Amino acid sequence: MTKSSNKIFLKALQGEVLEQPPLWMMRQAGRYLDEYRKVREQAGSFLKLCYNPELACEVTLQPIRRFGFDASILFADILVVPDALGQNVRFETGEGPRLNPITNLEELKQLDLSKVDEKFNSIAETVKLIKAGLPKDTALIGFCGSPWTVATYIVGGQGTVNQAPARSVAYSDPEFFQALMDILVEASIDYLSRQVEAGAEALQLFDSWAGSLPVDQFECWIIEPTVRIVDALRAKYPHIPIIGFPRGAGPLYSRYIEAVNVQGVSVDETIDPKWARDHLQSKVTVQGNVDSLALMAGGDALKRQVDMVFEAWSEGPFIFNLGHGIQQFTPLDHVEQFIKLVRR
Ligand code: CP3
Question: 314-331: per-residue pLDDT in tens?
Answer without folding.
Answer: 999 999 999 999 999 999
